[in-house]
């Protein structure tokens, strides 16, 4: 592998960082330039992510990047494996449509949208790539800080109130994160995940107990992020208050928690004495989350809340399914994660367009509301959209597609995802493996119910928005706003058609996750550049 | 280049005091002090005219001595506690000093001397309100401030 | 002998400073008014600064000097802000 | 404890001890006064013991100690002294003035009113802005 | 040492938790500050507490006597992030106060 | 053309046509759309017909395409005789419906959309028929639900259409989900989703413990789709659809999908007692109730809808019996029902179209106006009634024959003949009613369209064709439908194919007698009830109030709305406090439970170890923390000051426990935080202790709970930290850092080397956080609006300004000028000093305590001091800080330093350090880490200043009315 390719691993962090920093040099009025920088960065990011994705699937790829050229347990490492590459691709795929959507109008609703957006991407990518617990904390904070800014982008009472709750809960979570990480450091003496996985077997007695307590506290943090009931009440408020493009990119934020849980539970707690730590919490918590999300989906009147509760359903599904700790099901869950992230993003983007049509004055009102009380904001151009023929039809089709995706109906990827998980639980893949445990039946029931609830809610909402109130008024929608939604839906369609290859990737991913030895080995024995001897552990490593 | 030579020199001294004396640090200190004095130049403070800067050490000496003296005085009052009969109070002292820097120096002297505290300067009436812990003889204090410090400061600054 | 004196005097002086801090803390909680509390905080800062310097003597390292210098040089900023808040109701006008 | 200081000459040890005791005692006395004096305006005098010679004593002690120990002049502690001396008046002044304002606003009779408008007659004043 | 420090951490945590459960935004921000002190000290204490063993390399001082520098670095990062988030939370609570007119954490007064 | 290709085309063509129709969204393309749809449907019909040779005599065509092979989900298309027959039905009736709709739809309707949905529906239906993979089948199954929803709600401005469509979707959706689950369980049992494999594994399935589960789930799917009791009620409500839709969905396709499924899985699932009971009860009750309800409908389409339900019940009943002959009858009746019901719907549509109403109470004597349609309708309804020489008669005969047979020897067996006869009588009654009330009797009086006349010929053509089919099949069954039926039966039953004969005349036997009884009884029944029926309300007498629809809607609203809302608000919360409480409790729980489980017992502290001075310091710290907690509600400033006290304790602790870097950083941060909070304090509302001290009991208990939680958290944290501190330090990575810091990192301050080198990446992230927060703060404050009660200047300023204003000799602002006169001088002169100090901290960081962060904050304090001294205007008049530039520069500098290593072939952030010999000066340490630290420094300065100044600007901004440069803190 040539040298420059190896540096690609850090590019997903550096590109948005540099773009975000560069954006600071330009005044808010240079909108076009800022937008250009942002778009170029996102495109570059996508190119890099796809490249890494491709590389991660090839054999013999050295996905470990030693920052500062320090050997593994001491310095910080970035690790690209199939899972992190998948998440990178997902994030960058999501970034482009949401950014384009934002360029239509929202990026002018407040200061520094583009910088914050880039920093959010940086935080996301960092969280996906890092192989170090404390570095994970740092990137969590980067991501969260940017999300605070983005959530309140556009200001307004709703957003700020939601932002207050969101920040307060996340600050408490951040403190827990610190406690957890330091407890792990105090009991295991390392921060590197791979090293931790190595050491965990040797830790005994009180130190093991402290380690497990630390891991538990850490788990609470990730569950807060992932939105497990009853730690998820911040989520509907926050997501539904955010502007459409922000909510769109937030779709992947709750998946970060899932990602980390998946990563740590299989890497560190996959084997050995602490194996399966907290799996039951995931299982039952996940089921409770599905139930709560389902209830919320039914109880939501506003589309934004409906979408937010769909996020919870999706999180709950993933948590519960991960709690089963079954390879085939986990592969299905990965597929589901990709599919539901795209779906929810598309839905959040769509909601704004749809609701714009509900009240003829709404779009103007939204703009004035944004600008209210602010002296130095130049006036928004009122004519933001053009009434296109067929707008309603396109919106309606997209809405129906979202409904189909959310409720897991064919022919889009929501069905394939649900099927992939279900078949792993009760279908052919467990044929003849004895009786099916009760918890699986519960999950199956909840999954079906949640799909049904989404169906009921979405028809209710769709009928209300498209057929009962939209008569005569056609929302003003720009092609630039419609295209991202359609792109995302098209992606789910592509995912459906290419379900076979996609599932193969997911299965391979799960296989690598289930054999953490290779990961650990790659990290610990990663070669330092320019150092003659293989970068083994230093004097104090004690490995 | 060097709008405030005295300040720059002091900064170099401070730098050397912090880092220890080496040639390298002397050069670095000079660079830093030039940089810092540009910063202060941007603030455009009222530039003090130090007429008789050689009187400064004398002032410092007097003040240090007075501080020692009043330290003892105040400490004894406090140590005696409730038995001490002291009468604290406010007094107004008219001032002739005009230069803000000189006023600042005076205020530092008055306040860092235990037992007296500079409360309020009135630029219209050009008086200062001082609170004294042991206000036995008001004129005594006034004389102390005007004669002992203000006169010297007037000499140095104006 | 002289060493013993030094040890004792250091201990004594630390005790004095800590006691002073206790008194300042008491004043801080008792008030009765905001300016008393602010002044108490200022005193607390000063005492901690001295305590750190004594600690430096005790350990024979001047690593802790910067911390005391920070208090000496910048500690007043917080107090100034507090005082200005009391006087003007806002810190920066 | 204090093994590093065993080589310290006796005179230095005693000088350091004396300065330490003086400095900390003065600070303590100031704090006692601060805690016990009845009015705010009296209380503002007390901490100045700590910030003047209290600090001074400890600074001196530290300087002597490190100079003798390290056999090179260590003077940076003097900066602490200088800055404390320069900045303490600022805080006291601002605080006291704020207290004065509050007392006046509440009509507390024990504080003097704003200074009279006319400058005292015995002042021959140069024109402002000269 | 450990006992005193952990007791202190406990008390700070208790006060902080009490405050973040209060309904006023200002209480919450003070509580978060207290909690971040406690957490910083906790991280700090994880490396083991040693007096006079600063991790600054000097000739003749064996490194084995020095305290663990890693928690220090972690605390430094945590302090910075804590400062940043406090600032952010403050501004958000001000904004919320401005927009809703109340300093209740939910943006409206609790019905009595 | 190969069979495989035809299969693909059959499924794809309709969808392609559907997509093409959406392109023709313009309304003037209605004819074009109709032609295209007709063409597609006809092509499908032809294609299907072409496959007949391949499926004749039990043959099958099969196509496998990989989709998700790992999970057993493939695109397997498979056509056998039964599928062929059904596909013919779907495509054939599809053609006719398109033709009919071409004339039926009015000018205003967006016709392309209609045809688009219709074709898509046809495609889905063909998909169900042709699926060779049971999961693929459920895919198409759900698609039919979705498209039927869109078709039923085609006239969506009509509330009834919307509700009907939604109900259809909900019910069939539920069914679809259950079906999927059932099919998965089936897959679990069989180990494959391939239809052929599943069908071959009938015995294995029936013996499996999960058989009942699978059966129930699949049956729910099938019965909902086929509108069987108790899921029948969606079908009548779906009659709000345009008539072509009803004709298509409710005769040949949608509702037939359910029975199709039953037939499809008949070999694998049927024949057990469970099957017989479940399917039988549903079928029999549907048969009877549907027929009974149909009699009392006043809506033409309603009558037909209930009749459909009843006929489907008949088919279901036949299938429940488990005998091969009954299955043959079921398949046969499926075909027959489709023909006559489609024609009847179309006839009803014509009547509706011509008269403007479908209410039988208003219709009368139409035969005069619509003679041809009337005749056709009469024949069709005769077929529905089971009149001899029509196709309905033959299959009904077969049903009666089966009904008298004994099957599972249960109560069902005994009642079945009577039920069948009764239902037959009802069906005769409503058929007669349909004809008699509409076409005979006095001329109509209050028709919305007064002059009905015959429709265009091509609109009537489909009916003519279908009626002809009824006749042909009815007269010469074995010559017409016989061979096709046989290959269908063969493909379903395989070896179990029974002997049966399709003949009109079997001699006088029990079924014939039953038929006669039903015919005569039905006629009699109608003429008895004629007068009542002519006037009565819609719906059957006993059940009029108890309509499934209403119950369903109530239940749906209750469960999915009322209960959901109640649950949501009770299981969730929108307040912050409970959330934080939960976070704290969760943290406590997971932190303490392991300790408890492991039986943790803390080592008792040794008193001698405790340094009393340190203990006293912590006494102060704890005191301050508690004080802050106590005071924060009413005495904010006191709380702030006490917080400062707690902070200084922390600093001393850092000093005491060997962390000078931390102490410095904590101190500077402490100062900035205090100022920050003070800046914010100005905008908070006044709060006095007196106002709200009426504490309710609830509040008191809440407080007590919080207090307990806080105390336990504190105690837990105490235990936890004590445990962890008492733990011997593990063999940590620390020793590596201590050893390599100087030799490889080039610095003596190990903490700083970690920060800028070993773990420099953390620092980069951390400064990014700071930058982000600064940006957010700035963005938020640009939109800042203070609450009304804090817009005014603070009280103090008002008093002081009033004082200045009162006195003529004073100008405004004199007080503050005097106040700051002396302090500001000192603060100004401190400016260069602090700057020097900050640079000092920055430069020495690598070797001694300090570093970029502490230096940066110090620098920011230097700026802050000037703002404090002179106010915003004064300061900005003199110093122009461009915080955003500082931040951008800092970030880029840090990143660029890291990237510099690339050019030497090293990874990001690899540092390089060396001693450089300079003239006069000697060796100077030069590490690239310094540049990184400079980046940190610049960013911290920029971010801190931006945060503070943006906040400070608010005071100024509020007093300035819309002046152009307001809020542009970035430029100052």
UniProtKB/TrEMBL annotation, chain B:
Name the keywords, alphabetized.
Answer: Cell membrane, Membrane, Transmembrane, Transmembrane helix
One molecular function GO term is: monoatomic cation transmembrane transporter activity
Task: Quote a single Gene Ontology cellular component term.
Answer: plasma membrane
Pfam family example for this protein?
Answer: MNHE
Q: Which InterPro entries match?
A: Cation_antiport_E
Chain segments annotated as transmembrane: 12-43
Topology within the bilayer: Multi-pass membrane protein
Signal peptide positions on this chain: none
Q: Where in the cell is it found?
A: Cell membrane
Q: Write down the superkingdom of origin.
A: Bacteria
Query: What is the first-listed, main subcellular location in coarse terms?
Result: membrane
PANTHER family associated with the record: NA(+)/H(+) ANTIPORTER SUBUNIT E1 (PTHR34584), NA(+)_H(+) ANTIPORTER SUBUNIT E1 (PTHR34584:SF1)
Q: What is this protein called?
A: Na+/H+ antiporter subunit E
What taxonomic classification does the UniProt entry list for its organism? Bacteria, Pseudomonadati, Pseudomonadota, Alphaproteobacteria, Hyphomicrobiales
From TrEMBL, chain C:
Keyword flag Transport: yes
Which cellular component appears as one GO term in the record?
Answer: plasma membrane
Task: Kindly list the residue ranges recorded as spanning the membrane.
Answer: 6-26, 38-57, 63-87
Q: Which domain of life is it from?
A: Bacteria
Q: Which InterPro entries match?
A: MrpF/PhaF-like (IPR007208)
Membrane topology designation: Multi-pass membrane protein
Pfam families membership: MrpF_PhaF
Q: Which UniProt keywords apply?
A: Antiport, Cell membrane, Ion transport, Membrane, Transmembrane, Transmembrane helix, Transport
Cellular location of this protein? Cell membrane
Question: GO MF terms on file?
Answer: sodium:proton antiporter activity
Q: Which NCBIfam families match?
A: PRK06161.1
Homology family: Belongs to the CPA3 antiporters (TC 2.A.63) subunit F family.
Question: Which protein is depicted?
Answer: K+/H+ antiporter subunit F
Q: Which species is listed as the source?
A: Shinella zoogloeoides
Its lineage opens with: Bacteria, Pseudomonadati, Pseudomonadota, Alphaproteobacteria, Hyphomicrobiales
UniProtKB/TrEMBL annotation, chain D:
Which residues does the annotated region (Disordered) include? 105-130
Q: Name one Pfam family in it.
A: PhaG_MnhG_YufB
List residues traversing the bilayer: 12-34, 46-66, 78-100
GO MF terms on file? Answer: sodium:proton antiporter activity
Q: Which domain of life is it from?
A: Bacteria
Q: Does the keyword Membrane apply?
A: yes
Q: What InterPro entries would the database entry show?
A: PhaG_MnhG_YufB
Q: Which UniProt keywords apply?
A: Membrane, Transmembrane, Transmembrane helix
UniProt xrefs under PANTHER family: ANTIPORTER SUBUNIT MNHG2-RELATED
Name of the protein this chain belongs to: Cation:proton antiporter
Native source species: Shinella zoogloeoides (Crabtreella saccharophila)
From TrEMBL, chain E:
What GO cellular component is one of the record's annotations? plasma membrane
Q: Show the InterPro entries listed in the entry.
A: CPA3_antiporter_subunitC, NUOK/Mnh_C1-like
- Major site of localization recorded for this protein: membrane
Keyword list, A-Z: Cell membrane, Membrane, Transmembrane, Transmembrane helix
For membrane topology, the record states: Multi-pass membrane protein
Q: Which residues cross the membrane?
A: 6-21, 28-49, 69-96
NCBIfam families in the record, alphabetically? PRK09094.1
Question: Localized where?
Answer: Cell membrane
- Record-stated family: Belongs to the CPA3 antiporters (TC 2.A.63) subunit C family.
Is the keyword Membrane in the record? yes
The name this protein goes by in its record: Na+/H+ antiporter subunit C
């Amino acid at each position: 592998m040539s040298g420059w390719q190896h540096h690609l691993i850090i590019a997903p962090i550096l590109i948005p960082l540099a773009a975000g920093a560069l954006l600071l040099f330009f005044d808010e009025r240079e909108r076009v330039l800022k937008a250009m920088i942002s778009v170029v960065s996102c495109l570059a990011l996508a190119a890099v992510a796809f490249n890494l994705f491709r590389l991660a699937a090839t054999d013999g790829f050295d996905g470990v990047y030693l920052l500062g050229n320090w050997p593994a347990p001491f310095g910080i490492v970035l690790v690209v494996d199939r899972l992190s590459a998948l998440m990178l691709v997902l994030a960058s795929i999501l970034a482009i449509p949401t950014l384009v959507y934002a360029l239509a109008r929202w990026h002018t609703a407040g200061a520094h949208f583009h910088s914050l957006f880039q920093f959010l991407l940086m935080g996301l990518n960092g969280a996906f790539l890092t192989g170090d617990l404390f570095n994970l904390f740092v990137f969590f904070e980067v991501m969260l800080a940017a999300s605070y800014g983005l959530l309140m982008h556009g200001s307004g009472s709703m957003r700020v109130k939601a932002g207050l709750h969101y920040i307060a809960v996340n600050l408490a979570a951040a403190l827990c994160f610190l406690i957890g990480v330091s407890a792990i450091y105090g009991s295991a003496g390392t921060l590197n995940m791979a090293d931790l996985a190595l050491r965990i077997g040797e830790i005994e007695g009180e130190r093991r107990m402290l380690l497990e307590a630390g891991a538990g506290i850490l788990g609470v943090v990730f569950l807060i992020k992932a939105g497990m009931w009853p730690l998820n009440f911040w989520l509907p408020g926050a997501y539904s208050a955010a502007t459409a493009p922000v909510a769109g990119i937030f779709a992947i934020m709750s998946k970060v928690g899932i990602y980390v849980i998946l990563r740590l539970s299989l890497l560190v707690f996959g084997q050995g004495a602490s194996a399966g730590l907290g799996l039951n919490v995931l299982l039952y918590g996940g089921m409770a989350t599905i139930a709560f999300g389902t209830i919320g989906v039914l109880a939501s009147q506003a589309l934004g809340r409906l979408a937010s509760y769909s996020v919870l359903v999706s999180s709950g599904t993933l948590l519960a399914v991960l709690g089963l700790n079954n390879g085939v099901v986990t592969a299905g869950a990965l597929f589901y994660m990709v599919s539901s992230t795209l779906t929810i993003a598309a839905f959040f983007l769509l909601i704004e367009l749809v609701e714009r049509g509900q009240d003829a004055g709404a779009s103007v009102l939204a703009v004035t509301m944004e600008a209210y009380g602010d002296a130095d904001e130049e006036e928004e151009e009122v004519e933001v959209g053009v009434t296109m023929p067929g707008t309603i039809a396109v919106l309606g089709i997209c809405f129906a597609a979202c409904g189909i995706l959310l409720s897991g109906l064919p022919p889009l990827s929501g069905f394939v995802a649900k099927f992939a998980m279900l078949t792993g639980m009760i279908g052919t893949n467990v044929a003849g493996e004895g009786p099916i445990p009760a918890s699986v039946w519960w999950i199956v029931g909840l999954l079906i119910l949640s799909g049904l609830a989404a169906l009921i809610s979405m028809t209710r909402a769709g009928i209300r928005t498209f057929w009962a109130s939209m008569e005569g008024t056609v929302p003003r929608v720009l092609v630039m706003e419609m295209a991202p939604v359609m792109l995302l839906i098209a992606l789910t369609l592509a995912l459906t058609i290419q379900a076979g290859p996609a599932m193969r990737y997911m299965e391979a991913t799960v296989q690598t996750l289930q054999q953490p030895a290779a990961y650990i080995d790659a990290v610990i024995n990663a070669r330092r550049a320019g150092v003659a001897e293989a970068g083994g552990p230093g004097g104090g490593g004690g490995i | 280049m060097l709008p405030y030579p005295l300040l720059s020199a002091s900064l170099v001294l401070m730098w050397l005091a912090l880092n220890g004396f080496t040639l390298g640090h002397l050069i670095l200190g000079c660079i830093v002090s030039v940089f810092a004095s540009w910063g202060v130049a941007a603030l455009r403070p009222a530039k003090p005219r130090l007429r008789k800067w050689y009187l400064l050490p004398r002032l410092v000496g007097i003040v240090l001595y007075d501080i020692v003296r009043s330290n003892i005085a105040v400490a004894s009052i406090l140590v005696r506690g409730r038995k001490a009969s002291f009468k604290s109070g406010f007094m107004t002292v008219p001032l002739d000093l005009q230069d803000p820097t000189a006023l600042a120096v005076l205020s530092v002297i008055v306040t860092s001397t235990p037992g007296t505290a500079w409360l309020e300067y009135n630029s219209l009436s050009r008086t200062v309100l001082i609170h004294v812990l042991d206000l036995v003889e008001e004129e005594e204090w006034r004389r102390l401030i005007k004669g002992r410090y203000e006169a010297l400061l007037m000499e140095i600054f104006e | 002998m002289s060493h013993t004196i030094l040890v004792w005097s250091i201990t004594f002086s630390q005790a004095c400073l800590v006691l002073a801090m206790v008194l300042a803390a008491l004043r801080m909680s008792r008030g009765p008014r905001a300016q008393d509390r602010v002044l108490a905080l200022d005193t607390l800062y000063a005492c901690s600064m001295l305590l750190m310097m004594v600690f430096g003597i005790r350990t024979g390292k001047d690593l802790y000097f910067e911390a005391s210098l920070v208090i000496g040089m910048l500690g007043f900023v917080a107090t100034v802000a507090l005082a200005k808040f009391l006087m003007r109701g806002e810190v920066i006008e | 404890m204090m093994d590093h200081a065993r080589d310290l000459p006796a005179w230095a040890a005693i000088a350091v001890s004396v300065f330490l005791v003086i400095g900390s005692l003065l600070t303590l006395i100031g704090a006692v006064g601060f805690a016990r004096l009845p009015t705010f305006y009296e209380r503002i005098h007390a901490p100045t013991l700590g910030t003047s010679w209290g600090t001074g004593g400890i600074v001196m002690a530290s300087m002597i100690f490190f100079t003798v120990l390290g056999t090179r002049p260590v003077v940076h502690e003097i900066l602490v002294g200088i800055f404390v001396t320069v900045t303490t008046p600022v805080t006291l002044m601002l605080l006291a003035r704020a207290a004065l304002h509050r007392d006046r606003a509440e009509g507390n009779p024990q504080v003097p009113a704003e200074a009279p408008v006319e400058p005292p007659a015995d002042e021959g004043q140069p024109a402002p802005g000269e | 040492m450990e006992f005193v420090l952990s007791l202190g951490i406990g008390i700070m945590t208790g006060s902080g938790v009490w405050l973040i459960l209060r309904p006023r935004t200002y209480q919450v921000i003070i509580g978060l500050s207290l909690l971040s002190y406690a957490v910083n000290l906790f991280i700090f204490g994880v490396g083991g507490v040693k007096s006079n063993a600063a991790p600054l390399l000097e000739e003749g001082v064996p490194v084995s006597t020095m305290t663990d520098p890693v928690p220090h670095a972690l605390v430094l990062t945590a302090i910075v992030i804590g400062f940043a988030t406090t600032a952010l939370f403050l501004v958000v609570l001000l904004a919320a106060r401005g927009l809703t007119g109340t300093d209740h954490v939910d943006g409206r007064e609790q019905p009595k | 053309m190969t069979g495989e290709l035809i299969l693909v085309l059959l499924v794809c063509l309709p969808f392609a046509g559907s997509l093409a129709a959406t392109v023709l969204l313009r309304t003037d393309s209605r004819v074009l759309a109709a032609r295209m749809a007709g063409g597609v449907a006809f092509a499908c019909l032809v294609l299907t017909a072409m496959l007949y040779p391949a499926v004749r005599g039990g043959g099958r065509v099969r196509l496998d395409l990989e989709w998700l092979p790992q999970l057993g989900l493939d695109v397997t298309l498979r056509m056998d005789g039964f599928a062929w027959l059904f596909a013919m039905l779907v495509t054939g009736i599809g053609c006719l419906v398109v033709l009919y709709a071409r004339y039926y739809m009015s000018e205003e309707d967006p016709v392309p959309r209609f045809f688009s949905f219709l074709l898509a529906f046809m495609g889905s239906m063909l998909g169900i028929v042709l699926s060779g993979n049971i999961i693929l089948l459920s895919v198409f199954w759900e698609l039919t639900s979705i498209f039927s929803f869109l078709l039923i709600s085609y006239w969506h401005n009509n509330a009834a259409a919307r509700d009907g469509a939604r109900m259809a979707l909900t019910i069939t959706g539920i069914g679809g989900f259950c079906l999927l689950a059932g099919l998965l369980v089936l897959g679990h049992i069989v180990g494959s989703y391939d239809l052929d494999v599943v069908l071959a594994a009938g015995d294995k399935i029936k013996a499996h413990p999960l058989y009942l589960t699978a059966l129930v789930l699949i049956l729910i799917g099938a019965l909902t789709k086929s509108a069987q009791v108790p899921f029948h009620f969606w079908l009548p409500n779906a009659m709000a659809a345009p008539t072509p839709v009803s004709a298509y969905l409710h005769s040949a396709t949608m509702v037939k999908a359910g029975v199709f499924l039953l037939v499809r899985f008949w070999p694998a699932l049927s024949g057990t007692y469970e099957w017989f009971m479940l399917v039988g009860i549903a079928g029999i009750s549907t048969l009877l109730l549907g027929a009974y309800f149909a009699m009392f409908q006043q809506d033409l389409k309603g009558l037909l809808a209930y009749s459909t339900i009843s006929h489907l019940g008949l088919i279901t009943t036949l299938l429940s019996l488990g005998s091969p002959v009954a299955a043959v009858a079921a398949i046969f009746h499926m075909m027959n029902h489709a023909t006559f019901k489609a024609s009847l719907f179309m006839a009803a549509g014509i009547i509706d179209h011509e008269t403007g109403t479908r209410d039988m109470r208003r219709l009368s004597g139409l035969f005069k106006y619509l003679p041809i349609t009337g005749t056709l309708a009469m024949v069709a309804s005769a077929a529905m009634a089971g009149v001899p020489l029509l196709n309905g008669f033959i299959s009904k005969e077969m049903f009666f024959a089966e009904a008298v047979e004994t099957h599972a020897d249960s109560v069902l067996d005994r009642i079945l003949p009577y039920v069948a006869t009764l239902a037959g009588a009802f069906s005769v009654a409503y058929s007669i009613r349909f004809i008699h009330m509409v076409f005979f009797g006095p001329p109509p009086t209050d028709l919305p369209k007064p002059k009905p006349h015959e429709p265009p010929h091509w609109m009537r053509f489909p009916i003519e064709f279908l009626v002809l089919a009824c006749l042909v099949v009815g007269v010469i069954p074995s010559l017409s439908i016989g061979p096709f039926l046989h290959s269908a039966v063969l493909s379903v039953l395989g070896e179990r194919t029974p002997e049966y004969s399709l003949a009109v005349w079997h001699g006088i036997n029990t079924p014939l007698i039953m038929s006669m009884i039903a015919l005569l009884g039905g006629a009699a029944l109608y003429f008895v009830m004629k007068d009542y029926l002519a006037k009565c309300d819609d719906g059957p007498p006993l059940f009029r109030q108890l309509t499934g629809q209403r119950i369903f809607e109530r239940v749906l609203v209750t469960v999915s709305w009322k209960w959901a809302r109640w649950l949501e608000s009770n299981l969730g919360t929108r307040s912050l406090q409970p959330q934080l409480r939960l976070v704290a409790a969760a943290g406590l729980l997971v932190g303490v439970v392991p300790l408890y489980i492991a039986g943790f017992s803390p080592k008792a502290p040794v008193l001698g170890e405790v340094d009393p001075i340190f203990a006293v310091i912590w006494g102060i710290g704890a005191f301050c923390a508690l004080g802050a907690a106590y005071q924060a509600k009413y005495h904010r400033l006191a709380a702030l000051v006490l917080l400062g006290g707690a902070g200084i304790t922390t600093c001393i602790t850092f000093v005491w426990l060997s962390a000078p870097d931390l102490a410095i950083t904590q101190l500077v941060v402490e100062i900035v935080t205090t100022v920050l909070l003070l800046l914010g304090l100005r905008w908070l509302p006044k709060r006095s202790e007196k106002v709200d001290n009426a504490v309710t009991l609830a509040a008191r208990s809440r407080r007590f709970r919080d207090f307990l939680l806080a105390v336990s958290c504190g105690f837990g944290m105490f235990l936890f930290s004590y445990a962890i501190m008492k733990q011997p330090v593990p063999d940590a990575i620390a020793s590596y850092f201590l050893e390599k810091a100087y030799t490889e990192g080039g610095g003596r301050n190990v903490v700083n080397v970690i920060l800028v080198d070993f773990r420099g990446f953390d620092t980069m992230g951390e400064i990014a956080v700071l930058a982000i927060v600064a940006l957010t703060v700035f963005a938020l404050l640009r939109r800042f609006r203070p609450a009304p009660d804090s817009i005014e200047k603070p009280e103090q300023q008002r008093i002081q300004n009033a004082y200045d204003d009162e006195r003529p000799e004073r100008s405004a602002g004199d007080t503050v000028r005097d106040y700051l006169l002396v302090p500001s001088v000192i603060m100004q002169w401190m400016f260069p000093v602090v700057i020097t100090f900050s640079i000092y901290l920055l430069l020495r960081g690598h070797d001694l305590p300090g570093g970029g962060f502490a230096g940066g904050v110090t620098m920011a304090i230097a700026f802050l001091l000037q703002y404090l001294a002179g106010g915003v205007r004064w300061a900005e008049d003199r110093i122009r800080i461009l915080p955003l530039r500082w931040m951008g520069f800092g970030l880029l500098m840090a990143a660029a330093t890291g990237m510099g290593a690339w050019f030497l072939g090293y990874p990001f952030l690899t540092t390089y350090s060396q001693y450089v010999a300079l003239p006069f000066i000697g060796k100077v340490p030069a590490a690239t880490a310094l540049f990184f630290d400079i980046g940190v420094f610049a960013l911290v300065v920029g971010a801190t200043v931006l945060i503070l100044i943006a906040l400070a600007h608010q005071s100024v901004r509020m007093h300035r009315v819309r002046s152009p440069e307001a809020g542009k803190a970035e430029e100052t």
